[in-house]
Amino acid sequence: MRFVKLFILLSLFFLSYNHVYAFEAEVVPLEIDPGDSFMVKVTGLYDSGDPEAVLDNRTLYFSRCGRGCYVAVSAIGLDTKAGKYDIRLSAGELNATLELIVRDANFPTINLTLPDNKVFLNPEDLKRAQKEAEKLKSIWKKISERLWAGNFVLPIENETSTAFGTKRIMNEKKTSIHKGVDFRGKKGEPVKAFNNGKVVIADDLFFGGNTLILDHGQGIFSIYMHLSKINVSPEDMVSKGDVVGFVGSSGRATGPHLHFGVKVQEINSNPMSFMKLDLLSVTNGNGKD
């Protein structure tokens, strides 16, 4: 898929104490597919307070990236229709509207054959799966302090096997949408942390098997499934690139691989889209003058 990196550049001027101030805002990338992440970057904002932005009634969370510089990372849902969407930006008395373009995307369809008891659940397994889903839903709602810093990194450098958004037909009857990316791998290959974060789940789940979830702050979570072994414990703090687990085939899996997912403010986001965001200027500090 060709990456389109276009910028929307907006300069707003106002008079205060006989001086002219200006700030610039951009959406990167300007055009995205359903499920992709994106960032809003604001520069030259010195005397108007921290910026605020809203997309479709959702708040975007800004981080400092230097003097007068702010960056927010967000995403749109897989079910978002193609079209133009407004991001309403404000800073003190300044207001602006930025445009985000969502392309029409066609996701692939594949057929999978799994043990029937992993597709058509008995009452006991169904109850367990539903209980786990409710627990995860409560986690996704949390908006904690930012822990991530700089660019995000892939947990493993192997080829992918199943892309984000793929429609899967299981045992010729049941369908589901793939909400992450599957990486090929051999059992025991190390899996690394997407970014700095806190371990919020390190447990054996019905579908995910040995599953690890890291909270990177600001509603961004990374999910690692089907691990053969988890290398960390709940509440542990990890750094970007730390080995947090090992490739396996636990849970509902057809063989050894890593299922890697990302949640952004409760939205399933394509992990690969994070690789297109330049976040080097967002450091561990707050970037204040």
Q: Would you give an account of this structure?
A:
The protein is mainly beta. The protein has two domains: 10-105, Sandwich (Immunoglobulin-like); 109-275, Glucose Permease (Domain IIA) (Distorted Sandwich). 6% of the residues lie in helices and 44% in strands. The strands form five sheets. Strands 12, 15, 17, 18, 19, 21, 23 and 24 form an eight-stranded antiparallel beta sheet that branches. Strands 1-2-4-8-7 form a five-stranded antiparallel beta sheet, with no helix packed on it. The protein has a five-stranded mixed beta sheet with strand order 3-10-9-5-6, with no helix packed on it. It is globular. The two termini are 40 Å apart.
Give the structure's gist in a few sentences.
This protein has 289 residues and is mainly beta. It has one helix at 123-140; strands at 10-16, 19-28, 31-32, 37-43, 52-55, 58-60, 62-64, 70-75, 83-91, 94-102, 109-112, 160-162, 167-170, 174-177, 181-184, 190-192, 197-205, 209-217, 220-227, 229-230, 237-238, 243-246, 257-264, 267-269. Helix content is 6%, strand content 44%.
Major β-sheet annotation: 8 strands, antiparallel
Mean pLDDT across every amino acid position: 89
Q: What is the name of the CATH superfamily of the largest domain? A: Glucose Permease (Domain IIA)
Low-confidence stretches: 1-20
Classify the beta-strand content into a percent band.
35-45%
Residue share in helix: under 10%
What is the end-to-end distance? 40 Å
* Tally of DSSP helical segments: 1
Which structural category do the helix and sheet elements fall into?
A: mainly beta
Helix-strand topology string: EEEEEEEEEEEHEEEEEEEEEEEEE
CA radius of gyration is 20 Å
Number of strands: 24
Overall tally of domains: 2
The CATH top-level class label of the largest domain: Mainly Beta
By CATH, the architecture of the largest domain is named Distorted Sandwich
